[in-house]
Amino acid sequence: MSTALPKPVYQRFCKQVQGRQQLDRQTADAVAHAARIWAQDKGATHFTHWFQPQTGTTAEKHDSFLTLKSQIVAGQEETYAIDAFSGGQLLQSEPDASSFPNGGVRSTFEARGYTIWDPVSPMFIRRGPHGTAVLYIPSVFISYNGEALDEKTILLRSSEVLSNAAVQLLRTLGDNETKRVTTTLGCEQEFFLIDRALYNLRPDLKITGRTLIGVPPPKHQQLEDHYFGQIPSRVLACIAEAEYELARIGVPVKTRHNEVAPNQFEVAPIFEEASIAVDHNLATMEVLHQVAHRHKLKVLFHEKPFKGVNGSGKHANWSMQTDSGDNLLDPTATPETNYRFLLVLVAILDAVYKHGGLLRSSIASASNEHRLGANEAPPAIVSAFLGDHLSEVLNAIEAKRPVADFSQPHLETVRIGGTVLDLKISTMPPIARDLTDRNRTSPFAFTGNKFEYRAVGSKQSPSFPVVLLNAAVSRSLNLVSEALNKAKGSKAVPSEEDILSVVRQFTTASKKIIFEGNGYSDDWVKEAEKRGLPNIKSCPEAFKQLLAPHNKELLISQGILSESELTSRYHILLEKYAKDLLIEGNTLRSIITNSVLPSAFTYRKELADSINSQKTAGVDALPEKKILASLTKACIALTDSNEKLEALITKIEGLHEEAQGEACGKELTVAMEDVREKSDALEKQVADKYWPLPKYTELLF
Q1: Domain 577-700 falls in which CATH fold?
Q2: Has residue 491 got a pLDDT over 60?
Q3: What is the DSSP letter of 208?
Q4: Which label site among 33, 379, 445, 483 has the fewest CB atoms less than 10 Å from its CB?
Q5: Residue 416 pLDDT more than 50?
Q6: Residues whose CB falls within 8 Å of the CB of residue 15, separated by 6 or more in sequence, listed in order
Q7: Which among 275, 354, 320, 345 is positioned nearest to 554, based on CA atoms?
Q8: Is the pLDDT of residue 417 over 60?
Q9: pLDDT of residue 24
Q10: What are the start and end residues of each CATH 3.30.590.10 domain in the chain?
């Protein structure tokens, strides 16, 4: 833009965006003209407003730059084609708002909605088949009446609210230079890559994204030989091509590696401002999907596509940064005297403690429910991990005692014993040790200079979890500012003791949320109950947290969600949860009825024919008889379970929305698991040549 626009126009654009002012039409027209020329020079023939409805993915409608123009020449009207792109077309477009999830905000006959250009997120060009290209314009999506129907609008609102709260705290501390604080985000995206030909033979994977039946192979991840192993050449070719495509649209992918499970991988970017990071994460998922297709692979983003092996998450690394580039969550070498950091830290802990249920709702889905709490992902109990050093700092401030000397390994109060590791190898240098270890069992862990929100699901947009986190932290930052103003009284800036008194106050109030141990253990479940921390196991229960009075007040009073937007989002989440499970239930029933049982019956018939032929020959077919008896018993058990599943689905489909969600969570999941157990028992008995679906051995190896 700086090279394509006249200098005064570019300066005006930057001023309007940085000052969070509305763009004037003259500037929008100039930007639109420059964007069209730039895009067409790179082969683009169309443009699209690219937005994020509440479907977990993105949406787009392509319009060409083609415009017909008429004029009178020698008394005759002549029509000819030109390329044009106006500021109005750049600023606003109109998709059908009633065709996207809206939770009752729009009726079927009320179609109008608007997408509006987000000037903070850069436009980019995506290339398609046969040399085609499209100009993508990141946008927000609202209804005709102005309600947010997307993930981005509320993210931008929450970011502004948090910025205002953080700037207010900095003002209280005497910082009059900082004008804006941004949330930064980095999403570590995990996924599986499997052969597309095998994927096409699994109706459950194609329809639901996960295997509804299937026995884990004798070897999967027990030997721990896949994690950080050599990336298979076919996979490396796919990921490298995806990275190239992503680099062309400005997505800064930095890391790639094998994950724990067979055929599981991860890519991670350089961290960016949160709204741009969300755009780039969704673009990463789309590009991986398209490039994998070209390599005859299929990418699976479902949180738990294979039972018995690790599922996939999207670790959202979250922090706050001033407009001068200072990371507010950088503890420095002496966090005990970094008072700005300590105040921000206790505000975050306060937010997580008071609104843990709200954060739990942000990562609840039918797919993520399979992963949370397993020995691979953070539990459903929301807690925060700080590490030995920071925990000691807060404990010392609370107790009004000196902080332990972390350079002295003999101190019993400290478990890490120093900040330098000596490998006892003459050719190796001393190794600097981080102030904290990492706790992979914590849903919300401090990792050096940021918090890692590990519970976010791999398939979901990271936007909503960040929105609710921003909202909670904004409120707590304001409370810290109020407490600090009260402590300092008439003084221009608070004293050291004023600050420590506030840190002490918030540490004492929220210390129950801090947990340094094994979040997978049963002991933690009991301990969390003693502390009064919610253990929200089901999605319908989690969704209700959105409408809990203190959470509802938090979101509405700060202007992040209106009451109608919040209610609609609750209904959308609950409806999607029920629909996802009903789709799974119907898919499972169909696979059992149309594939699994017929294959078992064919094998059963062959066994019976073999027994009869041997009987005619006077041979005792005892082995076949034993297998046939066991197989018959397994077929009967599966048939009975499948009939019960079908009856339950019919019953649930007749219920109203909230009852559907409850029944799906409590009854349908149990019935589906019962069918799966019976089917997997049958898979172990039916000969390979009769089994109708690719097995885990083929899919994972």
Answers
A1: Four Helix Bundle (Hemerythrin (Met), subunit A) (1.20.120)
A2: yes
A3: H
A4: 33
A5: no
A6: 21
A7: 354
A8: no
A9: 87
A10: 156-387+436-561
Distance CA 211, CA 205 (A): 5
* Residue 504, burial from CB neighbour count under 10 angstroms (0-12, 13-18, 19+): middle
Query: pLDDT above 90 covers what percent of the chain?
Result: 76
Q: Dump pLDDT digits (tens) for 367-395.
A: 999 887 555 666 788 999 999 889 999 99
- 3 state SS for 252-318: CEEEEEECCCCCEEEEEECCEEHHHHHHHHHHHHHHHHHHHHHCCEEEECCCCCCCCCCCCEEEEEE
End-to-end CA distance of the chain: 48
Q: What number is the average pLDDT over the span 403-431? A: 61
Residue corresponding to tokens 């609750």: 570
Element (H, E) at 205: helix 203-208
Domain(s) labelled CATH 3.10.20.70 in the chain stretch across 7-150
Q: Are 138 and 150 in contact (CB under 8 A)?
A: no
Comma-separated ranges of CATH 1.20.120.1560 domains in the chain? 577-700
Q: Which CATH class is domain 156-387+436-561?
A: alpha beta
Helix axes 597-616 and 622-653, enclosed angle (nearest 10): 160
What does 632-696 look like in DSSP terms, one character per residue? Answer: HHHHHHHHHHHHHHHHHHHHHHTS-HHHHHHHIIIIIHHHHHHHHHHHHHHHTTS-GGG--S--H
pLDDT digits (tens, 9 = 90+) for 283-319: 999 999 999 999 999 999 999 999 999 999 999 999 9
- How many degrees, rounded to 5, is the angle at CA 174 between CA 170 and CA 178? 50
Q: Does domain 7-150 have CATH number 2.30.130.10?
A: no
pLDDT of residue 388: 87
Element (H, E) at 21: none
**Whole-structure pTM value:** 0.93
- 153-174 residue pLDDT tens: 999 999 999 999 999 999 999 9
Q: How many CB atoms lie within 10 A of CB 71?
A: 9
Give residue 608's Cα distance to chain centre. 52
The C-alpha atoms of residue 105 and residue 324 are separated, in whole angstroms, by 41
Say which residue the tokens 């109708």 belong to. 692
Closest by Cα among 191, 291, 297 to 241: 291
Beta bridge partners of 68: 81
Residue 406 banded pLDDT, cuts 50, 70, 90: low
121 Cβ contact list (under 8 Å, min separation 6): 138, 275, 276, 279
How many other CB atoms sit within 10 Å of the CB of residue 400? 9
Helix or strand or coil: residue 183? strand
Give the 3-state DSSP-derived string for 80-95, with helices as H, strands as E and coil as C: EEEECCCHHHHHEECC
- Other beta carbons within 10 Å of 254: 11
Give the number of other CB atoms < 10 A from CB of residue 488. Answer: 19
